[in-house]
Amino acid sequence: MRRTASTTHTLRRTAKPWLAAAVAATLTLPVLAPCAAAAGTGGAAGTAACAYGYTSDATVWFGAGADSGVPNRETGGGCTVMDEIMAGAPFATHGAFVRTVSSVTKGLVRERVLTGGERRDIVRAAGDSEVGRPHPVTGGRSVDLSRIGLVGYTVRATMPTDAEGTLGALAECGFQNIEPSGAAGNFYGHTAAELAPLTEAAGIAVPSLGVSLSNLQNDLDLVVAEAHAIGASYVRVSGSGSWTLEDYSRTAAILDEAGEALSAEGIRVAYHNHGYEFETEEDGVTGYDVLVRETNPAFVTMELDVYWAASTDTSATDLFARYPGRFELLHLKDMAEDGSFADVGEGTIDFAEIFAGATLAGVRYGFTEHDQPSPDGVTSACTSIGNLAELRY
């Protein structure tokens, strides 16, 4: 069932009791067909043309600085304006994208889905967007290290017993940010309030905290308190390899509900992927597609782990082109030739290409990570940021 305006209330009302059962057992609800709307035409009423399509709770939005402000209305068959426009993504050129938007919206004005003024706003937003514009690697730009951090999981071996020393060593080799991983109230045995003076003393900011999905459902006040205590403006969560597409749809509703509540506190929700989101697929739609399309970009962003995407032959830059503006956070993790983890810049992932596409993606922070660091977390982390300091893209 696609999450549209008519189904949102029910999903939000039932979100909390669902979670435990959904993780424990696979749901067996019917799966609908993927979006089949033709550009410029609405789907037939009463059909399921766009299961797991773009939420109608959002606006027609093409990335930061390209929000039309026009509601993403239903067009028929469970489809929305965004479903019809983005059915052609990725777009080869910016001109092709704007022409598609112009054509689709012209038809929707004729069908009285949009007004003429709304069409003009949408076409204007398309013109202002990065969609379809070239983002080449020129070799003349360097990475802004003030926007680079470390996922705390890399140094999980030393943070519980020597957080002060670990943070100091990271700062010494150039890290200005860190994303602690854990759950609200427990980051390597510390609360955020206990870590805050240590990160501050090291000169390291904490823009994001890794918490649990359960925290978003059951401990939202604690999440807010922890984020405020350490100055985080993002909280990120991960999912489960046992989920079906319907589970991802329900999770999208949970993320939106928490994201809307947290937005009043200046906090955004981010979803961090592994590989299974791309491998859970039905009729050409993946779990990742569901999460991106069914969450409202006003409240929820994605934290793309480029290693786990690559492990399923999913290109980060292809995702940027398909879902512009949705990736405010990245996990920068490299892949060795044999598929194992590598320090950033030591493996096979093209980070120059990723940084060149960062404007299209809407990236604000990138966090390096190594799941199995050698010889130790600090050494691995420092190697990664050293390589990024030398990268030209």
TrEMBL record:
Residues 169-356 form the Xylose isomerase-like TIM barrel domain. InterPro entries: IolE/XylAMocC-like (IPR050312), Xyl_isomerase-like_sf (IPR036237), Xyl_isomerase-like_TIM-brl (IPR013022). This is Sugar phosphate isomerase/epimerase family protein. GO terms for molecular function: isomerase activity. Keywords: Carbohydrate metabolism, Isomerase, Signal. It comes from the Bacteria. Residues 1-33 form the signal peptide. It comes from Promicromonospora kroppenstedtii.
